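Reopening this ticket.

The earlier resolution said the output was attached, but the attachment link was broken on my side. Pasting everything inline this time so it's all in one place.
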Amino acid sequence: MEKNDILNSTLNIDIAFVKGVVPAGSEIIKVRIIAGKDSPTKLRIAEDLRIKFGGETDKWQKKGGIVCTDYFYYDIHWYEYNGNGKQYEPKLKGVKAK
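Inline output:
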């Protein structure tokens, strides 16, 4: 498991039971590498990320982690290049009530 991270941009939440935002600056815990660099799983869209954002294909990775609020756990996924800390295309993958 990776160290905790900070969400770089605000995510809008608009699903059946939750509407609002996960604000930039929220702490992301339980950060993990899902695919790509430093993972045994190949990142299938690494070439697309290289074309769109630059860099070397084998240095892209997909990461995920949890943002906790008073009422919910938000599962967030994003792409990162070579551990630079910048989150590309962050997405909400799931919400769980506390």
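Reporter confirms the inline version is readable. Helices lie at 46-53. The CA atoms of residues 71 and 98 lie 5 Å apart.
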